[in-house]
Write a structure and sequence with these properties.
Blueprint lengths: L2 H8 L9 H5 L4 H13 L4 E5 L5 H6 L5 E6 L2 H13 L5 E4 L5 H5 L5 E5 L17 H11 L4 E5 L5 H8 L3 E7 L2 E9 L7 E7 L3
Parallel strand pairs: 1-2, 1-4, 2-3, 4-5, 6-8
Antiparallel strand pairs: 5-7, 6-7
């Protein structure tokens, strides 16, 4: 999908920086706003997004929280996230670092953590082997930052798969305009219930 088509379809600002791929794999703004509202209702006042990409979710999070931090391992993408936050008039702390690095996580202070599994295969085909072990990353986040975590997982990762890796959770299917887009996996006090739930969002 071409960059201008992604911008139009998802409702990104025409000023957003990023190439075709970095925008295509980013969140829909409507999804990020939904998540921000839900975290705010849970009492979250500061949030860190790991693997923040070009900053689409950070921009949407900023009006809801006192402090917003993003961590990105790719220096070029991290700089685009800074640029996008600045052009959107929001203040976010963008840090360069690897989410598998315990020292990076120890430097984060946040009520809740959003972890966007970085490498997804084609739609419906799961995750890429380049990803660090999910159970290990979540255990590291729990130990160093917060027990309250939301994982963005592709549709291919079933509730049973997630539960076998992370334990009991709320596994929420996220649909946008009738299309199954992703799952939000809520852990800690972010889970409203245990088991499978579903939310249908409208981007139009």
């Amino acid at each position: 999908m071409r960059r201008d088509e992604v911008i139009r379809k998802r409702g990104y600002s025409s000023l957003i920086a990023g190439d075709d791929l970095s925008l295509e794999i980013a969140s829909y703004p409507v999804t990020a706003r939904y998540l921000a509202e839900r975290l705010r209702e849970a009492g979250v006042r500061s949030v860190c997004e790991l693997c923040c990409g070009v900053g689409v979710s950070l921009i949407e999070f900023a009006p809801y929280f006192d402090d917003v931090t993003g961590v990105e391992r790719d220096e070029r993408i991290a700089e685009l996230a800074r640029k996008n936050c600045e052009s959107s008039g929001v203040r976010c702390d963008i840090r360069l670092g690897d989410v598998a690095d315990e020292d990076v996580l120890k430097g984060i202070a946040a009520d809740a953590v959003a972890y966007d599994i970085p490498y997804w295969k084609e739609y419906g085909q799961g995750t890429d082997s380049r990803n660090p072990d999910l159970a290990r990353i979540v255990a590291l986040i729990r130990r160093t930052v917060s027990q309250d975590i939301v994982v963005y997982a592709p549709p291919h990762m079933t509730h049973d798969t997630i539960r076998s890796l992370l334990g009991e959770c709320e596994y929420q299917e996220v649909w946008i305009d009738g299309r199954y887009d992703r799952n939000f996996v809520y852990l800690g006090r972010l889970a409203r219930t245990l088991g499978a739930t579903k939310v249908e969002l409208q981007n139009k």
